[in-house]
Amino acid sequence: MIDRNRSSKAFQKLIGKESIDHAVTDRYAVYNAIKKLHQYCLAHLIREFRQYAERDGPDKEIGKALEQELRKACKIHGKYRDGEMSWDQRNKRLGHCKSRVEFLLEDGMANGTDKLYKLSENLLNNFEKMWTFIKVSGMEPTNNLAERDMRKLVVWRKKSYGTRSERGKKFVERITTVSQTLKRQKVNILKFIQDTVICFYRKTETPLISEAFGY
């Protein structure tokens, strides 16, 4: 869905009456509406702490240490995902990372600048949202996959300045949804769309994305 605003109203319009069981997002305030299993994207946090690591003073060492710990957590999960360690082994190692991150955030509150203090305080107040993925099988610690899926659309929007009509907006929404879904399924996108258009003009039943594995 494309909307002019990244607001609470737009978010509610997107999800409608659906119940989101679990989600991985950045820390944008709109996503606080997710009341169930909510995971903060660790990749976003890694980038934030990298900025602190590039500063002078106490922020540098604290930011660098937090960046390294979160990178380590993602690497540990990656090994589990690739079958190199068991669920219990992963969680034991992630438990150590979790403890170190909590200590470093407390250090950030005690010794960091005002900005690092506020970030550390916010993360400590929502600490479990950094580690929801430990409890939920299949949940990732980052939303990198979604970011990659949206990358081409973001670049297109910046180059073209978006759409000027409701019809154009709906077309972009739908063609992007179709193409990205079929790409994930490793389906021939052009052939699927071609067959859909042919069926439309022949007034016959059009193919479904959920049954597109044969393309």
Provide a short characterization of the protein structure.
This protein has 215 residues and is mainly alpha-helical. The chain has nine helices and two strands. It has a two-stranded parallel sheet with strand order 1-2.
Characterization of the model:
The protein is mainly alpha-helical and 215 residues long. It folds into 2 domains: 10-135, no CATH class; 163-214, no CATH class. Helix content is 63%, strand content 4%. It has helices spanning 8-15, 42-53, 58-81, 87-111, 114-125, 132-135, 144-160, 166-184, 189-202; strands at 22-25, 37-40. The protein has a two-stranded parallel sheet. The chain is elongated.
Structural descriptors:
single chain; 215 residues; mainly alpha; 2 domains; two-stranded parallel sheet; 9 helices; 2 strands; 63% helix
Spell out the blueprint of helices and strands:
Blueprint: H1 8-15, E1 22-25, E2 37-40, H2 42-53, H3 58-81, H4 87-111, H5 114-125, H6 132-135, H7 144-160, H8 166-184, H9 189-202
Parallel strand pairs: 1-2
User: What is the CA-atom radius of gyration, in angstroms?
Assistant: 21 Å
Strand order of the largest sheet: 1-2
Helix share bin: 55-70%
What distance separates the N and C termini? Answer: 26 Å
* Largest beta-sheet characterization: 2 strands, parallel
Series of H and E elements: HEEHHHHHHHH
Beta-strand content estimate: under 5%
Shape: elongated
- Total DSSP E strands: 2
